[in-house]
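Structure, all two chains, one model.
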Amino acid sequence: MSDPSTLKHSPLEAAHVACGARMVEFGGWFMPVQYSGIMDEHHAVRSASGMFDISHMGEVTVSGSGALAWLESLLTNRVGKLAVTRGQYTLMLNEKGGVLDDLIIYRSGETEYFLVINAACREIDLEWMRSHLPKDGSVLLTDLGNDYAAIALQGPDSEKILRQLFPECDVPKRNGIASLAKDGKGVPSLVARTGYTGEDGFELFVPVAEGGPLWNMLVSAGVKPCGLGARDTLRLEMGYPLNGSDLSRERTPLEAGLGKFVSLDDPEKGDFSGREALEAQRSAGLPSLLTPLKLTVQGPPLGSHYAVLSEGKTVGETCSGALSPSLGEGVAMAYLPPALSAPGTQLEIEVRGRRYAATVSALPFYKKPAL
Amino acid sequence: MNVPADLRYAKTHEWIRTEGDTITVGITDHAQAELTDIVYAEPPKVGTEVKAGATAAVVESVKAASDIYSPLSGTVTEVNAELAANPALLNTDPFGQGWIYKMKASNAAEVEALLTPEAYITQIS
């Protein structure tokens, strides 16, 4: 637990307390972990709708004549692929190819970009970006992290609810960004069609003063408040990585299985931070691969830092784990030698001194049932 | 919160029920509400020697594991086999069908160190 006096507070905190949230420290922030219970919240998002406070995440705009070239040098995915209003998942690496952060970048204007970065990395990311800015003033970086409140509306009913509450909004397609409502005071209100749950959904960005009223409006529309607990089980069922658990400076995106978000073979990409290290790693062979695991026997819910064994020998440890509420099975992710990462490989996971049979699975763990 | 008047309580949120020389152990309504959604229980094995204040069982919710401390020292004589198939009994009936294990106490005086229902209510309110 960090020093309570330095804990950061969401502009929606009063609304969470009114909804009966249980609050915890997460990434330096005081955030809701659950309201009605992780299972209940998880199922609401899979079957109807739920919402998460994501105000702890950072928002940054990058603009200017040099913006595109600079972003290409900083991020792994080719930014030049983006048409105006489109977004993509991408990563920011250090020179060794280690992951500093994973983020979503939207091209919000002709030469303007809107980046959504992780809570725990806000300061580090900004420092890294500022230290790499060109000296000629061709790129303008603006931190709007303290100007925005943000709410993720997720689940199959999300679009219906968004249209009902914002009839004027030109609802974006998947990975697109649009204006949410007429601009009032402060930063512009935005809606992006994305999420971290595997369901259809939106991330809504509004000026801080409008965050609480928006939350309450969504509550009145029947959207279930959900905390970080359900956010974690939902993302893990899809195999989406969590920075700090599944991603770190010691692992590259190739090891994390995120190669499709790294434009190594795109002739238009050019150089970017970490490129040399990734190319070297690719030709030498990956030392490890982030591998999805499933328990094949009844056992305790999985968590992080449980040993993974092959033929009685420890070969890695879990970095994320949970009982999947949708599947009722224990699932986990672990960095393992590539030779042990093929689906169907038989392994064991040790929990409190007892070993449970597990098998390498495929992602996503959870596939939406066909309608 | 339900705090039955005929039980004694540990500060760590376990309860005991005394019937003759058999002691039944479980977790309180307050504890199950704090844990929420219990999805797994690992009771001790029959014959295990447990010590007052030491870990005797583990229960887990979706994301968190929680140690259950034995309120008394002694020998485990029976465990609740129902919990393996239905750990949610710990949530729905913590003082009844959600009991965890039964034991014979080796030091009856340890009961005096446990909280009365009134003292436990004071602790959790």
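Chain A touches chain B through 17 residues (CB under 8 Å).
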